[in-house]
Amino acid sequence: MAQVTVKINGFTYTVGCEDGQEAHLQAMAAQVDSRIDSIKALGGNSGEIRLLLLAGLLLADEIHDIRIEMDTLRTAAGQPPRPAGKPEADAEMGKRLGKLAVRAEQIAATLERP
Questions:
Q1: Mean pLDDT over residues 39-47, rounded?
Q2: If you ran DSSP here, which 8-state letter would residue 79 be given?
Q3: How far apart are the C-alpha atoms of 43 and 45, rounded to whole Å?
Q4: What is the 3-state secondary structure (H, E, C) of 15-55?
Q5: pLDDT tens track for 66-79
Q6: I need a surface site. Which of 44, 46, 48, 78 has the fewest CB within 10 A?
Q7: CA–CA distance from 92 to each of 20, 26, 83, 87, 107 (Å)?
């Protein structure tokens, strides 16, 4: 397992990833950092954990919008929309979200100040 140091909102974090995924992880960190910069530009600078939460919600909203757009394109092309509640896709997404949640909690724990 590779270790990558990413910088988000001026803080550095060491994160593990699969070998060969280092550049992808850096790109994802850059996306999160970009969302945090957007939030701060709107005057939303109210703590590191809150900024990370809001950035995560913005990214989740973008994924939601993309899925709706993809379903619209599929329908326009005469293909059925993505099945809602497809068990294997939901299970895989659940596993990935669970791993992300655990990692977010680990990062948040390192940020908490006594």
A1: 81
A2: P
A3: 6
A4: EEECCCCHHHHHHHHHHHHHHHHHHHHCCCCCCHHHHHHHH
A5: 888 888 888 888 88
A6: 78
A7: 21, 23, 15, 9, 23
